[in-house]
Amino acid sequence: MSGQTFEVFTLFPEAVAGFLRGGLVGKAVARELVSVHCTDYREFATDRYRTVDDAPYGGSPGMVMKIEPVVAALEHVTRERGPMHRILLTPAGPRFDQRVAERLATVPRIGLLCGRYEGIDDRVREHFVDECLSIGDFVLNGGEVAALAIIEAVARLREGVLGNPESAARDSFSLQDMSSETCPEDHGAWLEHPHFTRPPDFRGLGVPDVLLAGAHAEVARWRREQAWRRTWALRPDLRPQRSLPAGAPVYLVAQFGQGEKDMSERSALLAALAAAASAGGAELRVVAPGRASDLGDVPRAAQFRSLKDLARELRRRHGAAPRLVALGPADGLPLARGAAPLLDLLAASGTGDLSAPLVLVLACAGTGDLARPVTNAPGAASAPSSTGLRGLEAAFSPVILQASKLAAGLAETTPMNDSSGPQPVEAAARLVADALAELKTCRSTRPSELRHEQQ
Ligand code: 6GU
């Protein structure tokens, strides 16, 4: 890859050039990986006073940069050093971000036009540039700081500019695979995990043990989880939009224990879940050991005596091991809101195959709430053996065990929490309905994933 050139157009060429002499960009310039030219608009002003601004037509406070010196500067540089991709820096442009930096890193010659005053005569934007960019929702006195930010962000992505090319790939906002190579279409931007270095103790402030122990796989898992937590807590807007493949079957399972259960409560719950399932494109199944008579309108074919029986049936029907996810405020594991954390969990748990049947299990052994958890988290052993998850590894994909472990670890992350304790049936049904509806939208709006559809 040969060098990349930035042509900066500005009224303050010295300030811009001065900054770029320092740091990694300065080194990259010295090594001819990157070159930067600064061109002063003022040199292209033609009157005696070298005027580059004028009062706005229509009247308003402030001055506007004149079109002639700007276009003269552009044309001069184009003649001297060749054409370039022209970018106008303006707070009214689309937002510059890491995706844009990655795109610009592939462009050999980039022109950055800095405005001052109230901006540049708009005919420049309309007829003389290829795109506009802003670096954020705030107003600077001119585009110079924005140009510097863009040069630094773009240049560091060029081969050889950073000492260690891997660090660019691991930065916050870069495309990272949270599912560790198992789910290639599932890239997204995540905030980077935190870093620590010596000393291991500073005024009593320690470093996470897992990093000191240095077991590679454990460190990698911890970092993924940290990136996941941080992104959810600080910038949930950044996380990738995951989706289930269009044809992926989803089952909603109401699981009743052997304990006494108010009949009207039970049928109200079943009705609510049936509505949630059908609205969300899922099929309802019921697991209830030996109480078929209580299950009202639920067809026999949808009733199972145990999760194991259900798993066997689903494997027969779909030819793939179903993945089981327990939903419920279990052992400090709160209800996840919406489909997003669920999908993250599945992806992060290491399954590449999001098209396997997904089984969402609601535990409803109590009366009127979901206090009775179904979970693989420690403590799950207390669930009745016929309906709990023990011994189910053979029937369900082992992925689930990992997913649940991860869920337990991630449960504190604010945005996915509902810490209000056991949910009344209606609230739980509503949460499930929301999650299913979201899953359904994901599935129907992502045609690129149709190839995963089951045959
Ligand atoms: Cl590109 N220019 C100016 N003047 N202000 C900004 C900006 C650019 N991006 C954010 N604020």
Automatic annotation (TrEMBL):
Q: What is its EC number?
A: 2.1.1.228
- Which enzyme class, named as a word? transferase
Give the matching InterPro entries: Alpha/beta_knot_MTases, tRNA_m1G_MeTrfase_C_sf, tRNA_m1G_MeTrfase_TrmD, tRNA_m1G_MTases_N, tRNA_MeTrfase_TRMD/TRM10
**GO biological process annotations for this chain's record?**
methylation
Task: Give the tRNA methyltransferase TRMD/TRM10-type domain ranges.
Answer: 6-239
Q: Provide the alphabetized UniProt keywords.
A: Cytoplasm, Methyltransferase, S-adenosyl-L-methionine, Transferase, tRNA processing
Q: Name one GO molecular function term.
A: tRNA (guanine(37)-N1)-methyltransferase activity
Concerning Pfam families, the annotation shows: tRNA_m1G_MT
HAMAP family in the record: TrmD (MF_00605)
Q: What does this protein do?
A: Specifically methylates guanosine-37 in various tRNAs.
| NCBIfam families in UniProt | PRK00026.1 (NF000648), trmD (TIGR00088)
The annotated subunit structure for this chain is: Homodimer.
Q: Which family does it belong to?
A: Belongs to the RNA methyltransferase TrmD family.
Designated name of the protein: tRNA (guanine-N(1)-)-methyltransferase
Identify the species of origin.
Nannocystis bainbridge
> What gene name does this entry carry?
trmD
